[in-house]
Amino acid sequence: MADVLAELEALRAHDLPTHGGRTLAYVYDSGLAEADAVGRAALASFGATNGLDPTAFPSLAAMERDLVALARPLFHAPDTAVGTVTSGGTESILLAVQTARDAAGVHRPAMVVPTTAHGAFHKAAHYFGVELVAVDVDLATMRAVPDAMAVAMDAVADRLVLVAVSAPSYAHGVVDPVAAVAALAADRGVRCHVDACIGGWVLPWSAYPEPWDLAVAGVTSLSADLHKYAYTPKGVSLLLHRDPALRRPQFFASADWPGYTMLNATMQSTRSGGPLAAAWAVTRHIGVEGYRELVATTLATTAAVADLVRGTEHVRLAAEPDASLLAVATDGALDVFTLADELSGRGWFVQPQMAFRDLPATLHLTISAATADGLDDLVVALRDSVAAAVAAGPVVVAPELRAAAAALDPATLDDAAFDGLLALAGLEGAAVPDRMAPVNALLDAAPPRLREALLIAFLDRLTR
Ligand SMILES: *Cc1c(COP(=O)(O)O)cnc(C)c1O
């Protein structure tokens, strides 16, 4: 057994660190060793249980009810509200869209979202045949513009099934004007979903002044991920609906086969009780007061990093943050991709975000409680990284390459063409290069459809 576990540990050698507060995307570290231990123990102990049938494992149904009960006051849910535990933010959003589509039952259903809505809405559009209408945000604040969303809603009025906003958005960390947009949806008799996947376990303990949750009458559903700021192991999100009738189309049953009658509240059928038990245990261990302290630490750290960015030449905040996420842009003396590589070389992982429509390329920083301990080091790392990136200068993508990329129609490319393009982009084989800036700069220059096609071709090869 020890051999196998040692091999498993060795496999992690090239993974990003999940702890230490210096991986500023993907992972969330409370810095509380005991909370981690509680989560791991619960995960292991319930790993083999099956949420397929809550009557066979009543413990799982009980824990799900407890988590919903915990969340309900945090989001000002009315007494009628109901909730479901899902495997993650994407599944919560998929279900919110599917439920809205099926409740409306219209031909060619459409939803209206700001351009900053999470990619999970695009995935839902793709899976469920819902047209996604993305409305530009305000370039100064990066927030949704209610008037523009109203125009978009009216353009698809007879087939509009859902409107969504973020609290906050992943890319820029700002909360959309939830009340204004929800009122527009309510006026039109349409559902409004608040994507609080990342902010759901932060905003309730922050001083954010505007109403953003189920306290807003027009908000019909809300998603909040526990595997983010509730600091629970991966695989748990909550989807709340204002009342049972709104949730009803989410459920699926099939008696059309000779086996057990299939009965599911989520997309998965067999699902491990491990993540649910871990979330139950960690939230209970940390407790509401514990989260209040973690959020205070996180927001103070976010404010400190924001000040650091404001005080550093050549970099700036792309938006004023409303919660614990920062988007950092640069001036022309350097590019964000080179800066990301420089920070990475100094032990700080930040996530590059490509330019989109009129929005600049940025670096995404998710600050968690454990980041507080590294602040002094980050001050030095950022200063040195900016200096190094300025010295190197921005990666230049040759204009003829940019033009060629713009002219390529990904639908016409065959496997060999993708092999060639991936080699050109530096994405060959199973290992990604140490310095990602040249790759990212090229991808950034590619139109979104081509970028998607290239990355799919890359993933396809990675998993052959
Ligand atoms: C993380 C996130 C999601 C998607 O959640 P996953 O758990 O990664 O599937 C959706 N919306 C927002 C705002 C997020 O931050």
Keywords:
alpha/beta, Aspartate Aminotransferase, domain 2, Aspartate Aminotransferase, domain 1, 3 domains, four-stranded antiparallel sheet, 13 strands, 13% strand
Verbal overview:
With 464 residues, this protein is an alpha/beta fold. The chain folds into 3 domains: 237 residues, Type I PLP-dependent aspartate aminotransferase-like (Major domain) (Aspartate Aminotransferase, domain 2, 3-Layer(aba) Sandwich); 102 residues, Aspartate Aminotransferase, domain 1 (Alpha-Beta Complex); 64 residues, no CATH class. A 7-stranded mixed sheet has the order 1-7-6-5-4-2-3, with helices on both faces. Pyridoxal-5'-phosphate binds next to helix 4. The site of pyridoxal-5'-phosphate (PLP) has 13 residues, from helix 4. Belongs to the group II decarboxylase family. Sphingosine-1-phosphate lyase subfamily.
Report a brief summary of the structure.
With 464 residues, the protein is of the alpha/beta class. It contains 15 helices and 13 strands.
